[in-house]
Structure formats: C-alpha cells, structure tokens
C-alpha cells in the first residue's frame, strides 16, 4: 500500500442503512478521528476508524454511565488500553456530552471534551493529548499508552468492585455491581503485563471483567505475523476466561449478543475477540500505513466519499447525532444513578457506620484516629529490620483503615506485608484483604494502580531489586497522582549471601528520578512509623517505602531528634553547638553508622552534624529557609553515606563533599566483609569526614 491514494474504496453500508442514527454516529467517530489526526499531523487514525462500531455499541447500548455525573461510584468503567487510539475515546466523550469535573470534584458546567478540544488534538495543554490522561480529561478512567497497563488496571478495578461489594452490599442494598470493560489490541497481547494480569483475573474468576480484543493483525512495522502468530483466544481459554469470537467489527448485532453473554456469565471473565480492518473504509485499510500516521488529505476525501460523508467538511457532526448518542446513554445512566442515590440515602439510615466509612473512602480521607495505635519503638541497640517494624506499623494502621489492602509478589513472609488475622482475597472470598499476586511483579503494579483508581488504599510489595520488573506502573502511579504504596524490602547489600543479583545498587537513584514519586528510606523503626504516617496522609502521591532485611538499631529519641522530621524529608538528627565543621547525611541502615561516626568525631572535638534524609522528594518541597537550617550553604564539608550508587548525591554534598557509597560491584560475601570492602565502617566515615574538612 502506497502513501498516496490511487483507488477510492467502495461504499459499504453493511449492517446499518445510510443515514440511520447508528451509521451516522459511527461514521462521526471515524471522521472526527481522521480529521483530528490529520490536523495534528500526528497520531493513530486507523484503530478508531475500525473500532467505532465497537465503541458505539458498548457505550450506547450497555455502558452504565451518567454523563452529568462522571464520578458516580457505581458507574461501569471503560478502559482504553490501546491508548494510542485516544481519538476513539475523545469522540465518545464528546458525543456522550460528558460534563467536566474539576480537580476538586466540582462540576464546571463545561463539556469534558468539546469539538474545539478535538480540534486541538495532541497540542500542548489541550484536553485531548496523544494518549488519555487520568485527572486531565473527565471521562478518562486511567492513563494509558504503555501497552498492557490498561489491561492490568482494569483487573484492579474489577477486584475493587468485588471488594467494595463484599464489604458494603447488604440485603436490599446493592451499592456496587458495576462492570469493567477494556478495549485492547495486538500490542497489549504481546506485552507480558497483560498475560500476568489476565492469568490472575482468570484465577480470581472476575466475571465483572470484559476485555474486547481488537485483532487487526497490524502493528507499526507491518503485519503482526512478523513476530506474533499465536492463537490468543486459546491462550485466554487456558487462563479460564470465557472466549467469544466476532468475525467482523462492523457487526454490531453480534457484538451486542457477545456483551449480553458476558453480562450473563457469573463464573469467569470474558474475552471478546473482534476481528477488524484497521483504517476501515480508507485506501490504506488493512495496512500499517493506517496505524501510526495521518491518512493524508486525498485519502481522507476518498474515505469520506466511501462513507457517503461530506467531503469538504472537517470535524463535522451531523444534526441529531449528539442527541441520539447522549440520549441512549443518559436515559439509562441517569435513571440508574438516581436509583443508586436514593438507595444510598436509605443505606445511611440502615447502616450508618458503614455509610460513614464509605463516605471517607470515596473522598480519599482516613478515619479519625487512624494513626492512634501506630507503635512507638523504644531505644534498642540491636533494634529490628525496617521490614519488621514496617509490618508492625502496617498492621496497626490496617486495623483502623479497613480499605487499606494489598499484598506481595509471592514474598509476604519476607516483606512482612500480610495483614494479620485477615483472610486472603480469593474467588470464594472477595472480602479478603491479603492479596497473593504470585510471581507477577509487573502485573501486580498495574493491578494495584487499578485498585487505587477505585479509591482503595492499595499496596504492593517485593524486593527492591525487582522494581525493574514493574517500573512502568510505578511511574504511571506518579503520573496519575494516585496514592499507591510500593513496599520494597531487602534494600541493599544487606541481603548478604544472596549475592549481586539480589543486591540493589542503582535502584534508589532510579526511583528518586521519577517525578512525583515519594521515595522514602527510613533509618530506624520510628522513622518507619513516621514514613507510613506521612505517605498515607496524601492519597494523591504514590510512595516507595525502602526497607531493610537486616536489623537497624532503634535510636534513642530522647538523645536525638524526633522521627517526626521524616515529614520534611530531611532533618537534623544529631548536632553540635554552633556551626558544624562537617555534615554527615545518611538514609536507611546508614543512619546509625552516621550517628556512630558523629559521636566519634564529637569526642575528638569536631563539631559534627547528622542529617537523616529519608525522602529527597519531601525535602525538595520545603522552603529555602528550612533547607538552609538543615544544610547551611556555608558548610561545604559534607559526606553522604548510603549503600547504593552515588548518582544524585552531588546535589547535597556539592563539589567539595564526598560520598561513601557503592562504587563497584562486589562478589557474594557475608555482610560484614562487604561493609568493610566498600567502606561502610565508622572508621572510614570518620576518615572521609576529616578529608573533606581538610580539602573544602
């Protein structure tokens, strides 16, 4: 297929008559998508053109959604995992007349996506970016683009519905019974995260979950058989899904029957395989040329001709299309929402405690006294591993916050993230709070994000070195500003005999590099308590808690500063009178090492200061006066101490400072030998401190 059209396609009314409301709505979605991509000179027109009948049928005939109340808790969720096909979603939002909700949850009286917004597709600061962004555009349920992530998110959303229903639905009060629909494509099916998520969804028998798979056999490089020729339907059958095939994406009646089958299935998720022609109706139909680039003016003219569309009109919405599409959705959705609101009003009387709890959950707030039982740890030279103190703090909070739920990638006994006395979330108990994600770090991350998008305070845990397997969802949690908590233990060479494959070196630097992610490495049990308390206060900032395998001394807080300083990210933990001669900055297991070095320096008459810096993110949010009080610019003799790479510490130690960090990789050895080899000893820290004092 060449870039320039040579033959006009034949008009193909197929299953709907020309001029019918259905045909007009479908072709409006197609032509808006073509025109927006062409004007932007960038984007993906082919998939929205192919899937317009699918989007139309699902939204107009089935989706439980009130366009006037896009945040209705019991609405169906529509996830566009094929985020590059964003113009399909923007067209649907526009035609449905979804009303905009601002960052504070208030309706603005504006359209969520206007025709003018569509004309600004892919432009800076527009409400129609190249890939859908949660919080940015009302009607977008999750940020998608990295393929497979939306699939994983949708499993988390389906889990959340099941958990909410198990906890809050009572006889005569069905508050939660919504479904989750996901539109996915060949790229999603190739990415491993979708396989991880699908396997778990099948295991959990999430019958409220429906994936609609656009099987068009085209990717950017060409036909998918260049690299992908498996029978995806058979794979999902093996996962335990109900698999339905539709031969033609234009067969809206067949799709409707398939969705009806989904809605009547009660023991497994549903996977609908829809065979489509990318760029349907255009001279580039069926070609990779219809995938990731504009069609071109002449091809658009010929395509509109094939649709029986005005060839000289761009961004054309025929009279009656919006009224038809909005009416089909709103007439159903508004009635259902009104009934739900009336039901919740009665629920407040019958179940006042659960109702009050649900109100807090949906507002992303915490119960009064949620932190009352967080333990205070007594000074102890032996101390305990921060994973152990973390488990104690987690359980103290979980007893007060029932919607704090999560689990690990098969490592709960090691990460200490199980909620004691609570059952597991399984197909026979959707009220469980402990999740067994299996050895699926990537899928776990995407699923935890989906749970957080449904207002649950969700967490996922694994060893820090395995964050490499789940970096995409960690990053997306920050982009979306959802309060997922990532618990990463075994945080350094302190894993000892496991050797280099399990010793994270560069991982702290890579997490700290993610904008909007609060990465905290607490130095003792009380800093762990302060860290959990700090991160749960903010439901719009995800956090990575970095915890140790080995025991950390619990510092004497009558002698040293309160661990409440964690709230500011960095604080003066130990000090001397007057301006310090040298500042020692440390995190995690190295905080106690810095304290020991400080005591030795002080005994030798050196005015030393120790700064505990568990969170760079939080520290950078403080004002200049606070930062100056912690790290005075006049004190240029500084040493950073951390069992990780040195990258990034230059911002705090400056050109005259030094780091005691991991500069090379060591072979497997006992921790004591590794500490000595890399200089993590009191004598070496003192030595380096004296060196920077002499050379500053």
Write structural notes for this entry.
It catalyses: D-sedoheptulose 7-phosphate + D-glyceraldehyde 3-phosphate = aldehydo-D-ribose 5-phosphate + D-xylulose 5-phosphate. It holds the Pfam family Transket_pyr. Its cofactor is Co(2+); thiamine diphosphate; Mg(2+); Ca(2+). The protein is an alpha/beta fold and 696 residues long. It folds into 3 domains: 9-336, Thiamin diphosphate (ThDP)-binding fold, Pyr/PP domains (Rossmann fold, 3-Layer(aba) Sandwich), CATH 3.40.50.970; 380-553, 3-Layer(aba) Sandwich (Rossmann fold), CATH 3.40.50.970; 564-695, Rossmann fold (3-Layer(aba) Sandwich). Strand 19, helix 19 and strand 20 (608-612) form a beta-alpha-beta unit. Helix 1 packs across helix 11 (321-350) and helix 19 (590-603) crosses helix 24 (682-695). The longest helix has 30 residues, at 321-350. The N and C termini lie far apart (67 Å).
């Amino acid at each position: 297929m060449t870039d320039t059209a040579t033959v006009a396609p034949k008009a193909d009314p197929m299953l709907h008559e020309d001029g019918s409301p259905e045909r007009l709505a479908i072709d409006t979605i197609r032509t808006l998508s073509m025109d927006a991509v062409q004007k932007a000179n960038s984007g993906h027109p082919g998939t929205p053109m192919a899937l317009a009948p699918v989007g139309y049928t699902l939204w107009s005939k089935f989706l439980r959604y009130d366009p006037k109340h896009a945040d209705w808790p019991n609405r169906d969720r529509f996830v566009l995992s094929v985020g590059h096909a964003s113009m399909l979603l923007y067209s649907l939002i526009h035609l449905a007349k979804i009303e905009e909700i601002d960052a504070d949850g208030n309706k603005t009286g504006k359209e969520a996506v206007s025709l003018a917004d569509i004309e600004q597709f892919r432009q800076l600061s527009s409400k129609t970016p190249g890939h859908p962004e949660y919080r940015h555009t009302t009607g977008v349920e999750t940020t998608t683009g990295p393929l497979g992530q939306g699939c994983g998110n949708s499993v988390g959303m389906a889990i959340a519905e099941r958990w909410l229903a198990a906890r809050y639905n009572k006889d005569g009060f069905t508050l939660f019974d919504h479904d989750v629909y996901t539109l996915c494509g060949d790229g999603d099916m190739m990415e491993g995260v979708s396989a991880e998520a699908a396997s778990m969804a099948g295991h959990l028998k999430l019958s409220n979950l429906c994936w609609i798979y656009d099987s068009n056999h085209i990717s950017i490089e060409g036909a998918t058989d260049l690299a992908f020729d498996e029978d995806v339907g058979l794979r999902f059958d093996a996962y335990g899904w109900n698999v339905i095939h539709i031969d033609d994406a234009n067969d809206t009646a067949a799709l409707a029957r398939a969705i009806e089958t989904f809605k009547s299935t009660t023991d497994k998720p549903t996977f609908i395989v829809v065979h489509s022609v990318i760029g349907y109706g255009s001279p580039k139909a069926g070609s990779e040329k219809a995938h990731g680039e504009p069609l071109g003016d002449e091809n658009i003219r010929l395509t509109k001709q094939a649709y029986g569309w005005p060839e000289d009109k761009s961004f054309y919405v025929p009279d009656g299309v919006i009224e038809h599409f909005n009416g089909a959705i709103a007439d159903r959705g508004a009635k259902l929402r009104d009934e739900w609101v009336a039901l919740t009003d009665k629920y407040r009387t019958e179940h006042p405690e659960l109702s009050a709890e649900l109100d807090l959950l949906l507002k992303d707030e915490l119960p009064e006294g949620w932190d009352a039982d967080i333990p205070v740890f007594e000074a102890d030279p032996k101390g305990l591993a921060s994973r152990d103190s973390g488990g104690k703090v987690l359980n103290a909070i979980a007893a007060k916050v029932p919607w704090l739920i999560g689990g690990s990638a098969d490592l709960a006994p090691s990460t200490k993230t199980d909620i004691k006395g609570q059952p597991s979330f399984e197909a026979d108990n959707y009220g469980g709070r402990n999740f067994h994600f299996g050895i699926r770090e990537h899928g776990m991350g995407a699923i935890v994000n989906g749970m957080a998008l449904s207002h649950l305070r969700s967490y996922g845990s694994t060893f820090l070195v395995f964050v490499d397997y789940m970096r995409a969802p960690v990053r997306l949690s920050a982009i979306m500003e959802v309060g997922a908590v990532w618990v990463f233990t075994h945080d350094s060479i302190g894993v000892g005999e496991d050797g280099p494959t399990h010793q994270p070196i560069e991982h702290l630097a890579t997490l700290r590099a993610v904008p909007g992610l609060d990465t905290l490495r607490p130095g003792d049990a009380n800093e762990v308590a302060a860290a959990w308390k700090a991160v749960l206060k903010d439901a719009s900032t995800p956090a990575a808690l970095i915890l140790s395998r080995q025991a950390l001394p619990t510092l004497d807080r009558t002698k040293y500063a309160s661990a409440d300083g964690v709230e500011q990210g960095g604080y003066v933990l130990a000090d001397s009178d007057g301006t310090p001669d040298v500042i020692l900055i440390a995190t995690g297991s190295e905080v106690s090492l810095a304290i020991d070095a400080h005591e030795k320096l002080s005994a030798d008459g050196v005015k030393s200061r120790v700064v505990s810096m568990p969170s760079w993110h939080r520290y950078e949010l403080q004002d200049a006066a606070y930062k100056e009080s912690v790290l005075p610019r006049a004190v240029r003799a500084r040493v950073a101490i951390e069992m990780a790479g040195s990258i990034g510490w230059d911002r705090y130690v400056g050109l005259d400072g030094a780091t005691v960090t991991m500069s090379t990789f060591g072979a497997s050895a006992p921790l004591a030998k590794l500490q000595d080899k890399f200089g993590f000893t009191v004598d070496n820290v003192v030595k380096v401190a004296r060196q920077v004092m002499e050379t500053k």
